[in-house]
Structure formats: structure tokens, C-alpha cells
Amino acid sequence: PGDALRVRGLDVTFTTRRGDLPAVRGVDLDIAAGEVLVLLGESGSGKSVTARSVMGLLDGPGVRLDAAEIRVAGHDIVGGRPDDVRRLRGSTMSLVFQDALSALNPVLSIGDQLGEVYRLHRGASRRQARAEAVELLRLVGIPAPDRRVRDFPHQFSGGMRQRILIAMAVALGPRLLIADEPTTALDVTVQAQILDLIDRLRAELGMGVLLITHDLGVAAELADRVAVMYAGRIVETGTVAEILDAPAHPYTAALLRSVPDLADPGEPLRPIPGSPPNLLALPTGCAFHPRCPRADDTCRATRPPRRPLARADRTAACHHAEEGVDATV
Ligand code: SF4
Ligand code: MG
């Protein structure tokens, strides 16, 4: 593991007028080539901040980033020279997010935008770049690519634009693709097609994928492994089957109860009580304790470290993880 991505001890703090905001704490991640890791959690849990840290995009006033290690395909992101890290973006590592329309240039044809990647990074001629752009559109399933390559972003549907954004992201054969809520703005059918596309490209190009989502259905569809985030920390890791069938952390269990169960559609939904914590004033001990049905004095006093359960990559940060989560509480 760790061929595509290795993160150790990532802390990110935003300094605000109201105090230090700990957005990410102690995050470790490993993604092997060809593997999909889903980072799952509510908004504000630190998923996107983690992604931007990996891309080397979190820098500047108001941000403090500390990490023992961030490596993408072996390249040092934390200790690397800014110029080297910039060159890795869009080639060795790529980021796709939800809003394809704002990511594309409205006044350039799709062919010019895709072709530019080859002209800038590979020194391709205009003619070569156009031919590569057509091939890319074909790769991501755009019908009639040799005609559509001349069209502009607004001439495509939302789903097709997301395909184009993904084409741009994989143009140079990245070792790591980060997809941050890539299907959130799309309807369910199109969503499934985009997830299929990401999975096909993962297999064909052998890249590691870090998929960020708040949607358990998306996680179930694509993940090999899942890391659940809460209040800036990873609180549980495991294979997708372990996480969905036998969550070890009460937050994961609560998350599962809050969405429709395809296997058991009659079950009433139970939203997670309370609301995500204010990061400027985190609860003592376990950050989940005000919302947790099992919280006791130990939970309120002491923060639970994340510990291995059955295996080293099956972990949970809960004082009572070994006792198992009763799905009915
Ligand atoms: Fe709940 Fe305690 Fe586990 Fe936190 S440590 S999730 S409060 S049981
Ligand atoms: Mg986000």
C-alpha cells in the first residue's frame, strides 16, 4: 500500500479572528495503485481540506499545515519545492470536483482546453494536441468526439461536462486521482455513469483514487476501503463491506441509520441527533460524545485514540469499539 498516496500525521489549522480552527487532525492515509479509498463524512469534517493538502494547494496566510509525510507516487509534497509540486499537479496527481461548469473556460472550445494540457506539458503541436483531445473524449465516452471537440462547455449537459473534466484530469496519466464529491450536482442515473467511468479509468490507467463523498451509496458503489471522518479526524477505517455490514464506530453506525437501506426499505430513517461540532469549541474527550448513545464518563473525559481492531487496516477511534455497535440503539 501507499504506492499512489501515503499521508502521515496531517494537521491543518486555520487561524481565524475567533481563534485557531483545527480542520484536520492526525490524518493517515494509504492508497495503492489501482485502489479506491473513499473518505466519508458530513460536510465540514475535513475531507476537502485533506484533499487540498495532498494536492499542495493549502498554503498562505491563515493556514498552518503540518505533516510527517505526504507522498504522491513517491514524490514529496510537504518537503518538495513549490515548483516541483506545481508540476505534479495535473500530471502525477489530479483533482476533479463537483462544479464542472466553473472549472472549464466558457470561451474556449473543449478541444482547445484539452489540447492545451498536451501543448503545455508535452510540447505537442496544435494538430497533435487536437488528435489527443479527440482520443480523450472517446476514452471518457463522449459520442461523436471528432465533431464535439469543437464545441464549447455550455453546449454539453452537466454529465457530459463532468466527463470532460475527468478527461482533463486523466490526460497525462496521473498516479492519483482525487475526486471531491464528483457527482453531487448530477441526477442519480448520470451519477452512476460517472462513477462507472471513474472505475473504468482506474482499472485502465492503474491509478489510485481518493473519492470524497458524504453519500454512502456512492461509497458502496466504488470503494475498496473506506475512511470515515468526523470533526477533522479519521474515526474508522475498513473495507467497504466491513464498514457497511459491521460498523465499529457509533458515528458510522448512526450515518448508516440515517440513509435509506436498500436491503430493508421499510426501516424508518433515523437522522443523527444533534449537529456536527463547532471546531472552534470541540467537545472534551471524544468529539462525538454529545451525539453518541453510548457515551459515558470515560468518553467525556478522554479522547479515544484510533486503534487496530481485527487487523492493522481495520481501525476505530472509540473507547467501546470492541464491544460492537448495536444497530438498534
Ligand atoms: Fe461514543 Fe464513547 Fe465511542 Fe465516542 S468513544 S464514539 S462517545 S462510545
Ligand atoms: Mg467538501
TrEMBL record:
Recorded superkingdom: Bacteria
Gene Ontology molecular function, alphabetical: ATP binding; ATP hydrolysis activity
Membrane topology classification: Peripheral membrane protein
GO BP term (any one): peptide transport
Keywords for the protein's UniProt record, in alphabetical order: ATP-binding, Cell membrane, Membrane, Nucleotide-binding, Transport
Subcellular location: Cell membrane
Comp. bias (Basic and acidic residues): 310-323
PANTHER family: DIPEPTIDE TRANSPORT ATP-BINDING PROTEIN DPPD, OLIGOPEPTIDE TRANSPORT ATP-BINDING PROTEIN APPD
Protein name, per record: ABC transporter ATP-binding protein
Biological source species: Micromonospora radicis
